[in-house]
Description:
Elements: H1 2-10, H2 37-48, E1 53-55, H3 57-70, H4 73-83, H5 89-94, H6 96-102, E2 109-119, H7 127-137, E3 139-141, H8 152-161, E4 171-181, E5 187-199, E6 202-220, E7 225-231, E8 237-244, H9 250-256, E9 269-278, E10 280-287, H10 288-294, E11 320-331, E12 352-356, E13 361-367, E14 373-379
Parallel strand pairs: 2-3, 4-11, 9-12
Antiparallel strand pairs: 1-14, 2-4, 5-6, 6-7, 6-9, 7-8, 8-13, 10-11, 13-14
Pfam families: Serpin
Domain Serpin: 39-382
Family: Belongs to the serpin family.
Amino acid sequence: MDQLRTRTSSLQYNGRKWLTQTVSVDTTNDTTSKTSFTVDLYQVLKHQEKGSFAVSPVSIRASAAILTVGTKGRTVNDIRHVLRIPANTLRVEMKTPYFLDKQKVTNVTTVKIGTALFPSEGLHINKQFQDEAEQYFKTEIIKLDYENKTDDAISMINEWVGDSLPPSTMLVLVNTVTFKGSFLKGHQDSNFEIPFIAGPGDITQVPAIKMNVRARYRPLNKIDARAISLFYKGKDYSLVIILPNKVGGLVDLEDQMKGKDFSKLAIKKVVNATVILPKFKIGTIMDLRTILQKLGANGMFEHPVLTGLVENAQSRTVMLNAFAQVASIEVDEKEEPKYKGVLFPWGQPVESVEFKADHPFLFFVREKKTGLVLLMGRYNGP
């Protein structure tokens, strides 16, 4: 994973560090759907991903929304249906600047989202599409020579999509998401280990963080689990962990997610919490083409109508050959002096709880103002 993070942060093309560029995402929800894209996505990933993983649903939606600007017919209908993108694309575009202001690298939080579309050198990209992609979606359009493989970026893209791109490749869409923050905390110890129980007989000593904090907490008795919400410094983002009460309860918990959007889970009770978390880094490369096809977005990849993306003479032959996301999250705190008198954003707690995440759990990073999930995933251990 360290290699993944190094590759992701250092890729340049003609001096442009497009993958480390801070960009914005769509905040629009589809109120006509009984289940959200977040729920649908997790139902696919819980079977596909066997270990720990991280993914950004909102960033997938924002990246795919770029294509709605340049597609028509079944193609755009499939994209909008599967990703819950509203028919009024302009509404998506106009919400972009808010996140451009919010998603910045600060001394306490790093949130980086980058999107790039890599057409082959022979394609003539529609000028209006290029302008809208860059202005509204902060997407770089970088032409590559797939036929002669003369660009360094091609070998890296091959690693992400899990296959060697053929010389006939026309379009590749890549999205990257990175998150790291420091928790808003009181007394804290980050210099010890805990036994992490991944399963029966599968116990590993892992580095951990122990914090005494005021947090939001909720028992989830109906699904035999509990949830805690921990604010990061700056209070723009929070880490929500849903922990099964039983060591082997994660599979049952994931099954409970069917048809339910746990990302919208209300966690309101303020408690004085002793929180013990494993330190972890998760870096996941996902072939979104396979995932989205399982959800029904075949029109994106099978004979798409891309009349608004390329010049009309080429629109009948252009294909989206690959769509990948590289997502990473790091939970790791440096030791700080123990101190009292911390100012927290809530009133006096009425209960003390211990929350020890020493077995597999679900997590998501939520943006405070909108409630949107920037990242979600599963931690199964090292």
